[in-house]
Amino acid sequence: MKYEWFIASRYLKSRRKQAFISIISIISVGGVTLGIAAVIIVVSALEGFSNGLKEKFLANEAHIIVRSAYNYFPNYHGKIEQIERIEGVVAASPLILSQLALQPQGSESIEATIYIKGIDLQAEDQVTGFSNFVRNFTEFNQSPFIDEAHRRIAGSETITGGIVLGYHIARKIGVVPGDVLRLISKMVPNPANPGSFMPLMRNFVVVGLYQSGLYIHDNAFGFIDLRTAQKLYQKPDEINLIEVRLVDADMAPTVSNKIKQEVRFDPGLGAIPITMTWMESRADFFDAFELEKIVTMIVVALIILVAVFNIASTLIMMVMEKTQDIGILRAMGASKQGIRNIFILQGGIIGVLGSILGTALGVYVCWRLEFQVGLFPRWYGLLILLVPVILQVCQRVWSLPINATGFLLIWCIAAGLALYFVAQPIYLDNILGKNLSGVYQLNRLPVKISWGFVVLMNLLSMATCWLAALYPARKASHLNPVEALRHE
Amino acid sequence: MNNLIRVVDLCKSYYDGFTELPVLKGVDLKVKKAEVIAVVGASGVGKSTLLHLLGGLDRPTEGTIFYDGEDLFALKDQELDRFRNEEIGFVFQFHHLLPEFTALENVAMAGLIARQTSGVAHNRAKELLEYVGLGERLEHRPSELSGGERQRVAIARALVNQPKVVLADEPTGNLDQKTSDAVHDLLWTLNDQFDQTFIIVTHNQTLAQRADRLVQLVDGQVYAQR
Question: What is the ipTM of this complex?
Answer without folding.
Answer: 0.88
